[in-house]
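job 3f2a | input accepted
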Amino acid sequence: MNRVSTKTLVAAGLLVALVLAGFVSYYASRSPDGLNRVAQDKGFASTQKHHAAQDSPMAGYRTRGVDNGRLSGGLAGVAGALVVLALAGGLALVVRRRGGEGPDGLDRRDQRNQPDRTA
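job 3f2a | predicted structure (119 res):
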């Protein structure tokens, strides 16, 4: 069986995430999400206040300055996906570099070549 390289897997995952964020997100439900729905159902939705990021370029799942709703939402989705993927990738690199040493002081990458000492 052929193994898929890590680079191919990451590239395919990135492509799928960007397609979902950019195109498929347009078809997501327009119904209010969890907390908004509860606020409407319980009658306290009118007490909500504006947040500090309400004037940001991508507030409300839309891209400011883009008049086409579909394109605006797609751009916001792609930007959000890229930010999340960059943060997750950076965190994975940090954990990978810091997590090399095991509790016994041996580098985990070197333990594959060590004899089994549990007997």
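job 3f2a | Helices lie at 6-22, 34-42, 69-98.
job 3f2a | closed
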